[in-house]
């Protein structure tokens, strides 16, 4: 048994949904899996599904449905007529840079007089600031158009108004209670804005302004929209889906020098660009400029008109991104140390560790603290704030990331009295405050988390779209799944629960064997699966284990061949695993055990030995000195009380299946069983009865077919032979009949003992003869026969093939769980 890393939730369809899926599959020529997925995502109607799969620019909304759009268009056209100076005021992240680039393209096409301004993240911070507005006034700016910022700039816009500068705000962040007095404010999230889609990125709002001013959607700029939308983790649904899909098509054309150069440094071919390539290749490099230097470098790249300039800018951004990675790594280590120290202090004081992580230090780069917060969530799974402290002023600036169920923006709003400034949304936010308020902020946020979150919310969850089998993993199905792209927030790449997969083979790969490659069998086919970061599980998977895997289907292209593979995100083994070491030499059992069990796992292991003689011999061995922390007991000792172990080791052949089953009933928590019995140098208790032939014994006697000692027809065959040859000299009778019948002498001797016990043959002097009028008796009435039958059943199980033995073990554990449940019901 291996437990999953996350809490799985599998989506399901009711009867009506299943009917819709069947209809979709028929009408749109889709596989059952893809049709069910569309229904689950709200596209069960044929026309709706068709628009989702194939819809284009006709799915864009009228930009004038946005509140403030009419006023903004009129004011920009007035500036065009008056030849007024306009300043685009953007933000330093990828969405802000993309928005500024798009507005640059627009104003260039309109022939406006303009420039752009992006604040320095460290020196100026987020959003409009008084000094930047003063600089605009000095430059003769009459109109400021904000992109991806401004909805919270109440004081700053009031200052601009006093200086005679009009401000048009285009933003998509959550509006505060008090809105700025801008000439026009375009934000679909305004309470009284009728726009039908609220999920636009900042660059998406800028695109709608461009659409309104030009009278048609400028589809050639959708590539910039795709970059900002994906980078800002906006939902890829509704209008965003259309914009990003069209943007990817535009990107693949490779018309813009900036994107060509960016693709070159990321190592991704533009012709194959998808949302993953943007999110993990392009976006980090655009963001790196604002994090470590100035976002203008990224803006210059996106707006460049020649390849040479673009290549230089892309190279610089790639260098900055590498530096950013090193900075993040350093801060993460310092943050982990600070959090560990805080937890240890809480433990020493006997108090609960904070429910929300709030960490701050001098010198931490404000530009990367959001990434650090995300890394801490990966490790600890708690809402996290990472802040940098200014030594002179005591001011802290930072970023926060959240977990599912905890609304960061709402939580910060509850704590706004402690904050100088904050903004963001449910999953991510930025804030500034004085260092003196940090402790109180930590306590307040922790209290809110405890109130708002349930026990399940503290466990990372995985939402699974569909269950599938290996037969679903085909190129045809994968090609249909690709029609659901672009994937991202709100339209995630389908998470599948792969069932009916048995482990055929596995190996580790990559640096330090960190990754795992599996070969799975089921439904008459083989499928490769790759788990990045799962290399440590290689030794914890037993041969033939039944696996349940969560992940995604993907294409593996090699030497011109395209094959489907499964990318593993999580996995579990729902049954107890049998690690079959029965063919290992018994004299090496303790050494093998030492190799199997790590020292830190000693308290999870219970070793069973057949008898006290075995126990003494094992404990007196030199090898056991290295294993002295491991509990080692006999079957009788283990079957007296419940055992707290997850690994059970059978060292030496179990005395019987009955005794093994009895122990299993007292080990409800075991996840793995190691069978390590075979020939051994340890002494056997002489009081033990000789065992029946093992599978190894039978292999040694290839001249004789496998013979069951308790098969009735064999007894009948021998009895008929005795009727022909009796009376017979008792001495040597077993050897003689064994030769006649082609059996072993020991087998014939055993049958004689049963016949004698049942008085079916009798000894008369030196001879064996049949009684004249024997009383008919069943073989089961013989104690020797019953004992042999039990021994034979034990041998059949203990020396069965791995799959059969593993099945028997899990049957016993199922019985144990049933009994435990029944006891629980009786107690309740």
UniProtKB/TrEMBL annotation:
Q: Region labeled Disordered — which residues?
A: 682-710
Please state every residue range assigned to the domain named Single-stranded-DNA-specific exonuclease RecJ C-terminal: 710-808
* Chain ranges of the RecJ OB domain: 464-570
Keywords in alphabetical order: Exonuclease, Hydrolase, Nuclease
List each copy of the DDH domain by range.
Answer: 86-229
Domain (DHHA1) spans: 355-443
GO molecular function terms here? 5'-3' exonuclease activity; nucleic acid binding
GO term, biological process aspect, one: DNA repair
Record-linked NCBIfam families: recJ
The family classification in the record reads: Belongs to the RecJ family.
Supply the name of the protein: Single-stranded-DNA-specific exonuclease RecJ
């Amino acid at each position: 048994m291996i437990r999953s890393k996350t809490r799985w939730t599998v989506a399901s369809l009711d009867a009506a949904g299943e009917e819709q899926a069947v209809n979709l599959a028929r009408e749109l020529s889709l596989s059952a899996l893809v049709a069910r997925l569309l229904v689950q995502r709200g596209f069960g109607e044929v026309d709706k599904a068709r628009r989702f799969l194939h819809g284009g620019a006709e799915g864009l909304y009228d930009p004038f449905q946005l509140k403030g759009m009419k006023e903004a268009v009129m004011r920009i056209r007035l500036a065009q007529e008056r030849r007024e100076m306009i300043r685009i005021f953007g933000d330093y992240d990828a969405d802000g840079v993309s928005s500024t680039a798009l507005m640059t393209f627009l104003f260039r096409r309109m022939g406006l007089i303009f420039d752009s301004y992006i604040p320095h993240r460290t020196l100026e911070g987020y959003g409009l600031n008084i000094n930047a507005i003063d600089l605009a006034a000095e430059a003769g700016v009459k109109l400021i158009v904000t992109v991806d910022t401004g909805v919270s700039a109440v004081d700053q816009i009031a200052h601009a108004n006093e200086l005679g500068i009009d401000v048009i705000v285009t933003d998509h962040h959550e509006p505060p209670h008090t809105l700025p007095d801008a000439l026009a404010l375009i934000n679909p999230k305004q309470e009284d804005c009728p726009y039908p889609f609220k999920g636009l990125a900042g660059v998406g709002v800028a695109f709608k302004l461009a659409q309104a001013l030009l009278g048609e959607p400028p589809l050639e700029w959708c590539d910039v929209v795709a970059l900002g939308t994906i980078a800002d983790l906006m939902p890829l649904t509704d209008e965003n889906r259309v914009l990003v899909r069209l943007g990817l098509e535009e990107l693949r054309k490779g018309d813009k020098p900036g994107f060509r150069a960016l693709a070159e440094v990321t190592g991704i071919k533009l012709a194959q660009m998808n949302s993953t390539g943007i999110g993990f290749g392009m976006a980090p490099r655009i963001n790196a400029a604002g994090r470590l230097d100035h976002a203008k470098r990224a803006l210059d790249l996106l707006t460049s008109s020649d390849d040479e300039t673009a290549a230089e800018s892309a190279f610089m951004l790639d260098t900055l991104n590498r530096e950013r990675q090193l900075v993040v790594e350093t801060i993460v280590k310092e943050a982990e140390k600070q959090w560990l120290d805080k937890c240890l202090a809480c433990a020493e004081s006997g108090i609960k560790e904070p429910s929300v992580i709030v960490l701050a230090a001098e010198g931490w780069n404000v530009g990367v603290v959001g990434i650090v917060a995300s890394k801490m969530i990966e490790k600890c799974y708690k809402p996290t704030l990472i802040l940098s402290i200014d030594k002179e002023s005591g001011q802290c600036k930072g970023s926060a990331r959240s977990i599912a169920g905890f609304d960061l923006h709402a939580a910060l709003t509850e704590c706004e009295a402690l904050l100088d400034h904050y903004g963001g949304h449910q999953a991510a936010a930025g804030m500034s405050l004085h260092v003196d308020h940090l402790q109180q902020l930590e306590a307040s946020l922790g209290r809110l988390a405890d109130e708002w979150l349930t026990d399940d919310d503290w466990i990372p969850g995985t939402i699974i779209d569909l269950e599938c089998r290996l037969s679903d993993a085909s190129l045809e199905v994968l090609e249909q799944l690709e029609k659901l792209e672009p994937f991202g927030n709100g339209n995630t790449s389908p998470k599948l629960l792969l069932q009916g997969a048995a482990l055929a083979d596995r190996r580790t790969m990559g640096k330090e064997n960190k990754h795992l490659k599996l070969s799975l069998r089921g439904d008459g086919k083989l499928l490769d699966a790759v788990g990045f970061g799962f290399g440590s599980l290689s030794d914890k998977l037993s041969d033939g284990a039944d696996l349940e895997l969560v992940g995604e289907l993907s294409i593996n292209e090699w030497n011109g061949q395209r094959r489907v593979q499964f990318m593993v995100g999580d996995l579990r083994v729902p049954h107890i695993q049998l690690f079959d070491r029965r063919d290992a030499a018994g004299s090496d059992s303790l050494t093998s055990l030492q190799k199997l069990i790590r020292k830190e796992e000693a308290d999870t292991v219970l070793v069973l030995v057949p008898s006290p003689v075995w126990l003494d011999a094992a404990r007196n061995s030199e090898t056991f000195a290295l294993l002295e922390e491991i509990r080692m007991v006999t079957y009788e000792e283990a079957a007296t009380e419940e055992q707290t172990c997850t690994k059970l080791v059978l060292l030496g052949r179990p005395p019987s299946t009955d005794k093994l089953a009895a122990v299993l009933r007292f080990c409800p928590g075991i996840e793995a069983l190691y069978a390590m019995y075979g020939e051994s140098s340890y002494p056997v208790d002489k009081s033990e009865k000789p065992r029946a032939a093992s599978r190894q014994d039978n292999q040694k006697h290839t001249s004789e077919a496998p013979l069951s000692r308790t098969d009735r027809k064999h007894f009948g065959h021998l009895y008929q032979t005795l009727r022909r040859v009796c009376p017979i000299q008792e001495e040597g009778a077993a050897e003689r009949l064994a030769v006649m019948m082609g059996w072993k002498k020991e087998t014939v001797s055993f049958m004689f003992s049963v016949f004698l016990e049942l008085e079916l043959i009798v000894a008369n002097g030196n001879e064996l003869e049949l009684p004249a009028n024997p009383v008919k008796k069943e073989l089961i009435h013989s104690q020797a026969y019953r004992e042999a039958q039990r021994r034979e059943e034990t041998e059949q199980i203990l020396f069965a093939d791995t799959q059969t033995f593993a099945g028997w073990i899990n049957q016993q554990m199922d019985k144990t769980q049933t009994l435990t449940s029944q006891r629980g019901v009786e107690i309740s």
